[in-house]
Amino acid sequence: MSEGALAGQPVAVIKIGGSILTNARAYRRAALFVRNRQKLSPGERLVVVVSAQKDSTDALEQDAKKITESPDPAALDILWSTGELRSVALLTLHLQALGVPAVAVNIHEAGLTVPENERDAITGHVQIQPARLREFLQKHSIAIVPGFFAIDAADRVVSLGRGGSDLTAVLLAIGLNASRCVLLKDVAGYFTSDPHRNADARPVPFLTFEQALKLADEGCDLVQRKAIEAASRRGLQLVIRSLDEKAPVSHIKGAPNEHSLEIAVETVTETI
Q1: Could you tell me the CA-to-CA distances from 135 to 37, 48, 103, 110, 237 in Å, in that order?
Q2: Structural domain count of the chain
């Protein structure tokens, strides 16, 4: 068993996108999905990465711009973070109400850091230090973690760019040596483009990282490109699906001649 895994216990990462979290009923539905995942694999620990509720990030930015046309990036990151933290708290409470022993994890406890003050983490590195998160998972079967954010060298909250919750999920899956990384969207799997904007978008049940990156370059933004890049470098298979248990599922993985890399280190540094 590698240091990146919990002793004797497999770990899976599930990311729940903000487009799914539209209202109170949606949070409960997401909680039921997570509970069902746990029942299917009772010996598995789950890290659930959540985004802010749908449209709340844009609404928070609009609030800031009502005050000043050019909001301070550091203040804006703090304001944005309230959306993710609200989702963490609400999903945790819904799971606890269902009798599921979930724990809410703060941004400072998640283990993602960036050097200096690299807002949006467009350049540079993200470090994964999952020791504290593993401590939570030793005591709780499910940990709910905010996506989209890391901590910089000065211990300040820094955003990871739009779609950053996908990147959070991938990086935590790498750092925890997770068995799989599931990205929950409001569409049934991966498509050649966003089906909400293109009626001609075609579903793609299986594709390689190279194919997924090519689609991203062509405008498909269903999964953040930086997240696909990070998964590709580590050979981490991505599962793209919706909450609907009967809907199609897509898999993004390496080509047959590519090999996954087992992550067995305390600190992994990812170049973005």
Answers
A1: 21, 15, 11, 11, 25
A2: 1
